[in-house]
Design goal:
By secondary structure, the chain is of the alpha/beta class. The protein has nine helices and six strands. The chain is 43% helix and 15% strand. One zinc ion binds next to loops.
């Protein structure tokens, strides 16, 4: 038995036990709702709001968000894929915003699993559309700052990446390290974000990391892409460390 098969079984057992103790809540509004499951995780109201958000279109390319490949920075060489739109501080896309909070502030496994299942479809598209050999594909993520991790006990990008790895069998390469620079991104301009990203991340100091990344197609996971500065910088670090290509995959893109 492969170790991923064993992990899957352990997760299923622990999820079943967890739901015996804590019945499922809607992953949009958090209300206790009858009849929820991994495939129907929303109450009726959130389900219809989620459908609207999921089927809404990018204002630039007018394609549904999961088909949009526009990157916030023009001229970048790293393709990006995302599932949903997100507008920070707005009531628009309320269910997406609620799910993003749910994986960021508390380790909500039901939301992580639902989003990972959705990301799996995009992951398969990345492999097909770019003609990658799945055996050469790996997952990576930009870790949360140690300060935020200590505060919440959650690294949402890591949780999504590990759940996606279990669903896809693609291995996770722990290639990036956060440099303990705790400047809050949210209030910075695009230029400041890029500068901040450049001092915030580096390739982890492990002897075999360059061999591990060599000739690999890296799918770089994060929860939200705002300016794209962090992802762009991390993608260039991975490329410099030997990755053959990097594609960014996020749950949401800020509109
Ligand atoms: Zn709900
Ligand atoms: Zn677009």
């Amino acid at each position: 038995m492969k170790s991923t098969d064993l992990k899957r079984i352990l997760y299923t057992v622990s999820d079943n036990v967890r739901h015996l103790l804590f019945p499922r809540r809607c992953i949009g509004c958090g209300k206790l709702t009858e009849g929820l499951s991994a495939h129907t995780p929303f109450c009726t109201e959130c389900s219809s709001t989620f459908d609207t958000e999921y089927n809404s279109c990018c204002s630039d390319c007018v394609k549904q968000h999961r088909a949009c490949r526009c990157f916030p920075h023009t001229g970048t060489k790293y393709p990006q894929y995302h599932l949903l739109p997100y507008k920070p501080g707005s009531k628009k896309y309320a269910v997406t915003a609620a799910m993003l909070l749910r994986i960021k502030d508390v380790p909500d496994r039901d939301t992580v699993l639902f989003l990972a299942e959705e990301l799996k479809t995009l992951c398969q598209q990345i492999i097909t559309e770019n003609g990658y050999d799945p055996a050469q594909c790996v997952l990576a993520y930009a870790p949360r700052s140690p300060k935020n991790y200590r505060k919440t006990g959650v690294d949402q990008a890591r949780a999504l990446t590990q759940a996606l790895s279990l669903l896809t069998d693609l291995p996770v390469v722990y290639a990036l390290r956060h440099n303990k620079n705790d400047r809050i991104q949210k209030n910075l301009s695009t230029a400041q974000r890029l500068e901040n990203a450049q001092t915030s991340y580096c390739i982890i100091d492990k002897p075999n990391i360059y061999t591990t990344l060599s000739s690999k197609h890296v799918i770089l996971i994060d929860d939200i892409m705002t300016s794209g500065a962090t992802l762009m910088h991390c993608a260039s670090l991975l490329t410099k460390a030997g990755a053959k290509s990097v594609v960014c995959l996020t749950v949401a893109k800020s509109t």
